[in-house]
Amino acid sequence: MNTCKKSKIWRLVCIMLVIAIITSLTACYGNTSRLTEKPNGSVAAREGYKLTTDCIGRKVEVPASPKRIAALDSFAGEAMVMIGAGDKMIAAPNGVKTDLLLQRIYPNMQKVGVPMAGAAINAETLMALQPDLIFIKEAMYLTEGERAKLDKLGVPYLVVGYDSMEEQINALHMIGESIGSIAAEKAAAINQYYRKVIVQAKEIQRQIPEKDRFRVYHAINEIVRTDGAKTLGNDWISSVGAIDISAGGQLKFYENDYFASMEQIYQWDPDIIICNEADTVVYLMEDSKWQGLRAVREHRVYNIPVGATRWGQRGSLETFFAILWLGTTIYPEQYKDVDLKKEVLDFYNKILGLKIDDHTYELILSGNGIRNKSSGEKEK
């Protein structure tokens, strides 16, 4: 190959690299044409906008006071309603719309659009809703095809991530600050309560000897779907003073989920099983193939409560209640000073503006009857 031809190829490679870098920067900073570079090299938003850093560190220019927000992530959608910004939400996953308590907080929930099927965005439907800000989950951002759709829309989007309790707290703070005003204040109030519960749980945890700690298996929707090591489930279950047995196992990872085998579950033979679906509890207790498990024989299979969100699920804001529920359920002596009912009723009344009667509280605890199952939504 002659020198001239080599030179042309090299220039073409360089041009392609430059284009790739520019595209990458645009994806990281949203619409870079809206940003202003100051003399000192820092970046500022134009008038009427502000810079927000999302959960993966992207600096994005967003409206100073967004009015039409598409929450394409369940955690973000539930959070918006709980911090009083439901009236700004124009889109959300189906599961957010089916919670009866969220509907009570924001009665117009059924008018909110669903511009997605599973994890796939329908760009045309989304743009018809005219969003000025979009929240997406981290898994969506990491899917090249979905990220490409978003980048073409020209609407600023923020990535929401929450693989630990601390990440959840940071995510809620980011959502509140990006919306602003009362939403930011309510987000701060919820985070203050969240941190108080974590501190309380860890103080109790220190009183539980290692030999007395229960081995817990967490079934998510289906019995074999469970927690990995670096997951929110493992984080909050461990904070209670229990051992999340699947977190140390060799699990299969598929489509952002961890799976154990039936053989592994039998090998672990957990002391306690907690499930986020009432149907899973029934299946475990009635199907003959699971009768050999200690937790099944001893009737220590529990359904996790469902309130404004599914307590303890990775897309749920009410992880703090999952901590208190599990603690009072499996360690009643250590948690004897915790009045779960009072905690729940006070939080809903003072922060969410909901008065919960005894019947509704029992439905919450049962994990059955608060959330409409017709959505067919996979756990967040």
TrEMBL record:
Pfam families: Peripla_BP_2. Residues 68-334 form the Fe/B12 periplasmic-binding domain. It comes from the Bacteria. Belongs to the bacterial solute-binding protein 8 family. This is Ferrichrome-binding periplasmic protein. It comes from Paenibacillus sabinae T27.
